[in-house]
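I am writing to request your help with a piece of structural work I have in hand. A protein sequence and the C-alpha cells that stand for its backbone fold form the material at issue. Please examine both parts with care and let me know of anything in them that strikes you as inconsistent. The record follows directly beneath this note.
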Amino acid sequence: MKYTIEEILQMQEGQTFDRKSILIEPSHLATIIVAMANADGGMIAVGISDKTRRIEGVDQDKKHLNDILRTPLDFCAPSVPVTTDYVPCIDAEGRGNRVLLMFVPASPRLHANQADEVFWRVGDKSKKLTFDDRLQLMYDKGERYYEDSTAYDATLEDIDMDAVKAYMKRIGYGKSAMEYLQENKGFVTYKGDIPQVSAACILLFGKYPQTFFPRARVRFIKYFGTEEKVGREMNVIKDVLFEGRILEQIQKAVEYLETQVKEYSYLGEDGIFKTDREYPKFVIQEMVVNSVCHRDYSIKGTEIQIKMFDDRLVFETPGKLPGIVRTDNIRHTHFSRNPKIAEYLKAYDYVKEFGEGVDRMCRELSALGVREPQYDLVAFIMKATVCANVLDEGQETTQRNCPETTQIDLKLQEIAQKGQERGKKRTRKGQEKILEIIRQDPHISVSSIAEQCEMSVKSVRNLIDGLRADNILARIGPDKGGYWEILISTSKETK
C-alpha cells in the first residue's frame, strides 16, 4: 500500500506504527524493530520527529541513513526481514526530500537486540520481557502460524478472485489478483509446478472455506433462562450457524446478534425518548471479531459458539490466549495468533488499532455499571463472559454467573439494580404513551406509533409485546385491516 506524507502525519502512534527522527540511534531503532517483529509487525516512518511531527527527511544524512538501513541486519538477532519504501516530501527547511518507511513483518521467530534483550510492542511503547515471558513467547512462536500451513487439496479454482479484488481495492493494490496472491503473505506458493494454497487464503478468499475447514464457522445458541440444560430439560430456543469466508461470518453473526439484543426505551428528562441496550454495539462486534480473528484454526473438532442467556453472553473460542497475553493483562497486551487475518480485518475497519478493542470494551461496560468481560480457559476452549446491562431475572443471577464478586462489584450491582428500576419506570412511561396513542386511533400502525413516539420500530414492538404479555393490549384481526384493543384500564385511566 502506498502512503502520502499527509497520511503518515495523520497516523496515530500505537501498536503497529511509530515515527522516528533521522537522528535515532540504530540500537534504539533495533529495540522497536524487535518489539514489532515479536508482536504483530508494523511500520516505522523515519525522518519525522515523533514528538513534534517535524518533517526532517533522510536524504541529507546519507551515512546515518545507511546505518539505519542496516539496523535489522546488524543489531537484531536473528535479523528481521524488513522491507523499505520512500515517500517524497517537502521538509521543514523547504527542500525536496524523502521519508523512509520500514515495514516490519510479524515474525514466526523470537528476536532479540545485540544485548540479547527481547522486547514486545505494547501500545506505542517497547516493553522488555521477563525471562518467563520470553520462554512463553518462544514456545508460542513455534505454533503460531497455522494460517500459513497449506490447505490440503485446495487449488486455485477454490479461490474467489472477486473477493481478492475487493480486498485489493480496499488496500490500493494495483496489480492483478493472481499477482497479489503470489507476491504477498504466502497466500499462494509453489512446490515444483503445483500451487500450494495457504489456510489463510482459503479462510479469507475461498469460495466455500468449510469444504477444507468444516468447523471454521460461528454457531449461535440462545437459551431460555440462565442455565444450559440438556436432555429432557433442554432449553435451547435458537440454534443458528454462520458459514462462509471470515468476513461473511463476522457480518452475519453481528447482524443476527443485533436482532437478539433487548432494548429498553424510556422518556428522558429532556422529553425525548431514549433507548438503553443489554449490550453495547461495539462490545458485540469486538467479541465476535476477536473470536473469529484469534481462534486456533488448528483445532478442528469444534466451532466458535456464542451462547446467549437471559443475563449474559458467553463466547467460546477454540484455543488458549496467545503469546504472553493472560487474563490479567489482556486489556493492554496484544498478540495475534493469525496476524494475516488480523491485518485483513483491519482493512475492513473491524480492527481499528491492534490492542485498543478490549480496553474500549471495558470502558464502555464500566460506564454502564457492568463489570469487564471475564475470561476462563476450560480444556482447549477460551470462554469470555459478558454480563447484560439490564437483567430480567434480577441482580442475584448476575452474582451467580459472574464469579469472583468483590465489594466493588456489589456496589456496581447495587447501582445497576437502581438503574434497572429506573429502566422499568421508563418502560412503563413508554407503554403509557403507546396506550394513549392507541386509545385515540385503534387502527394505527406500529410504524406510525414509532414516529409519534420518536422511537425505533423495534423498540415500539418490544414495548407492545410487553403489554400483550401482561394482557393489557390485544391485536384483533390481521396486521393489515385489524385494530388494537385495550383490555384493562391503565393507572392513568383509574385516577
User: Anything to note?
Assistant: The chain has four domains: 5-129, 148-208, 218-405, 416-494.
